[in-house]
TrEMBL record:
One of its GO terms (cellular component) is presynapse. Keywords: GTP-binding, Nucleotide-binding. It comes from Clupea pallasii. Pfam families: Dynamin_N (PF00350). PROSITE patterns: G_DYNAMIN_1, G_DYNAMIN_2. GO terms for biological process: defense response to virus; receptor internalization; synaptic vesicle budding from presynaptic endocytic zone membrane. It comes from the Eukaryota. This is Mx protein. Belongs to the TRAFAC class dynamin-like GTPase superfamily. Dynamin/Fzo/YdjA family. GO terms for molecular function: GTP binding; GTPase activity; microtubule binding. The lineage of its organism: Eukaryota, Metazoa, Chordata, Craniata, Vertebrata. Residues 1-134 form the Dynamin-type G domain.
Length: 134
């Protein structure tokens, strides 16, 4: 499970590479960032904390964002071969210790990914809100 919560939870682009492995191969994961830090994960329960720590290292302890990518590779018999990039949702109003231009920062980050022609974009909106005002 990736980190969940209210507000901006995804604060850095997260490249999630799922790789299917042969039966009998144990689950494992590797999280890396800044081209030098590599964390080996031994169980799915470690994923959330590892991602949160990487985000704090890259974007700070507050609610800031970073353009630096976090790479998470998961190898399991129970996943398809698939690569996804999770991006922050657009925040319209700064809260707490967020930068006042948080909306513009996030939009610039998102645009770097959605402008690529070879990308399929999936936008997720909660079902219990008015889409016209989201």
């Amino acid at each position: 499970a990736l980190p969940r919560g209210t507000g901006i939870v995804t604060r850095c682009p997260l490249v999630l590479k799922l790789k299917r492995v042969k039966n009998g191969t144990p689950w494992y994961g590797i999280l890396s960032y800044q081209n030098k830090i590599k964390v080996e994960l031994e169980s799915p329960a470690e994923v959330g904390d590892a991602v949160a720590k990487a985000q704090n290292a890259l974007a700070g302890q507050g609610k800031g964002i970073s353009h630096e990518m976090i790479n998470l590779e998961i190898c399991s018999t129970n996943v398809p071969d698939l690569t996804l990039i999770d991006l922050p949702g657009i925040a319209r109003v700064a809260t707490g210790n967020q930068s006042q231009d948080i909306e513009e920062q996030i939009k610039k980050l998102i645009e770097t990914f959605i402008k690529k022609q070879e990308t399929i974009n999936l936008v997720v909106v909660p079902a219990n809100v008015d889409i016209a005002t989201t």
